[in-house]
Amino acid sequence: MPRVYVFPSPEIPSVQIAGTAKRFAVRRIFCVGRNYGQHVREMGGDPKSDPPIFFTKPADALVATGETIPFPIGTSNLHHEIELVVALGKPLCQADLMQASKAVFGLAAGIDLTRRDLQHAAKSNGLPWDSAKAFDQSAPIGAIQPISELPDPLSGQISLTVNGESRQNGDLSQMIWSIPQLLSQLSQLFKLEPGDLVFTGTPDGVGPLHAGDHVVGQIEGVGEVNFRLN
Ligand code: MN
User: Fold this and answer.
1) How far is the CA of 81 from the centre of ligand 1 (A)?
2) Which CATH superfamily is domain 14-229 in?
């Protein structure tokens, strides 16, 4: 018997896939902290001793590229973080590196919007990051580029501009933990499924955004993500 809900069930969050009208239905969003050495240093950490950290955003935090979003409530220090996003096409549980690399459906450019003021407060008080990271419309994302095989080694420019001015400019080869390593580690903690997204960390150059800003992120060989704040 079909279930009857008291409120209309929400639409499943999804992302466009380059070259097809089919969409990628999103299950969960995982994010990685501390995956580029220069960014670890700019945040006051040590890339040699700090392991990657995982946190999450709700799937409905996604914003399709090209949209205009309101400046988020609850912050006076909103930061941009351009990131390579991995879209999973196969389940992974306690996976090795080979299984992990074969589970990738595609790649996209995404932005991990961060309420830096709330993150600093959470860090100094030993509190969770949810308010800093998992807020509404905190995950702008471009189209997913399907791939048949994960490039090894992975390289390509990853950059972000604000109002045409360069803010972040790195290379995917600077990632401390590779995509298979990240997926393998994450799969020791969670049963990953098709539809899961993983934001893989940001290079250095993160900084504040203001109302009216036009933000463009680009990843060579993957795609673009852009949005406007009002
Ligand atoms: Mn991030």
Assistant:
1) 6
2) Fumarylacetoacetase-like, C-terminal domain (3.90.850.10)
pLDDT in the model for residue 78: 98
The tens digit of pLDDT for each residue in 68-103 reads 999 999 999 999 999 999 999 999 999 999 999 999
Give pLDDT, residue 66: 98
Q: How do the domains of the chain map onto residue ranges?
A: 14-229
Give, as residue ranges, everything with CB less than 5 Å from ion ligand 1.
Answer: 81, 112, 202
Residues 71-102 as b/e (b if ≥16 CB within 10 A, e otherwise) read ebeebeebbbbbbbbbbbbeebeebeeebbbe
From the CA of 132, how far away is ligand 1's center (Å)?
Answer: 11
- 77 C-alpha vs ligand 1 centroid, how far in Å? 15
Q: pTM for the whole thing? A: 0.96
Gap from CA of 118 to ligand 1 centroid (Å): 14
DSSP 148: S
| Distances, alpha carbon 47 to alpha carbons 35, 62, 79, 85, 140, in Å | 8, 29, 21, 21, 27
